[in-house]
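Wait, mind explaining this?

_____
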Amino acid sequence: MDCQLTKPNEPEKYEPSEGDIVFQALPLEDDLIQAIEGVTESNYSHVGVLLKSDTEWTVIEASRPGVIYTPFDEWKAKGRDGRWAAYRLKAAYQSHISQFLRDLQQHIGKPYDFKYELTEDKLYCSELVYHAWKSSTGREMGELKKVGELNWKPYREIIEKYNEAPVPVERQVISPIELSKADQLEKIYDHGLD
């Protein structure tokens, strides 16, 4: 007998849609990824947004060296053990997708923000999504947290290396995991990220 175990409401195959927000676990050989996952106590170390470019699905993401377009298949291949998940805007927010995508694309070419400051001149992955959503709707997506509220102590040395200063405990950040908990989103596909 052929038994397949699937989670309730989990489609067997992911059907992409523009504006889907995709999260992944990146390889832990990188100290920055170790810090992101350790500080936020989650496997969600990266995020981007899907859009269609001609006939190809593309992810707009803030990655080293900055805000770029990456083919979706290439993006998925960068993940740790192929682990990623897709979240979709709930029906009440679908009308914002076109403006959201335009606002995301205005940031193409901006450098990566290694200090994790909430500014728009340099951007990290979840900050890109956060700013574009706020710009297109006037509302926040996800909950900002102060670094001091997170599990930063075991990662002090890494944080100080990238910040080039003491740990900014009062600095507010938006992490991939907090973004994934946003009221506007619902998980529609999970490829081993939980």
